[in-house]
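Final report, Chapter 2: Outcomes

The project's central promise was a pipeline that accepts a single protein chain and returns its three-dimensional structure in a standardized token representation, suitable for archiving and comparison. That pipeline is now operational. To close this chapter, we reproduce one record exactly as it appears in the project archive, with the input sequence first and the structure output second.
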Amino acid sequence: MRTSRAFTIIELIATLMVIVILALIALPRISYMRARADQAANFATASVLANATERFETSGYSFTGLTADENGFVPIYAISSQLFAANMLSTTNMTDAQISCKFFPDLNGDPNNPNNVLANAGSGTLVFYPHN
């Protein structure tokens, strides 16, 4: 009688199926956790921008060259680069994919969206919207 030390094809397929099933169970949870982490990071970045904007305004600076699009949104880089130049931010690595910013001429911000971060911007309010 021959004894074999190798795995049979059935054993290899069964092991592979167990690994695939475990991966299928874990992947949606990993994707969900990553999305939650990105959302938390974007909200933290929006808070940093709002705090820096407040310090910028109270230090006597004012934003220049901010041009809003047809919906009132201002490019994040236009804001973060001025905050960085005034030493209010340590980096300009913020993108419009992470956060949107909209200018409201009154000081109340956007009443339709409670999930935003407000910052006084002289003659109005800059509202930072973290993306999900």
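Archive annotation: Residues 94 and 100 are 10 Å apart (CA to CA).
This record, like all others produced under the grant, will remain available to the consortium after the project formally closes.
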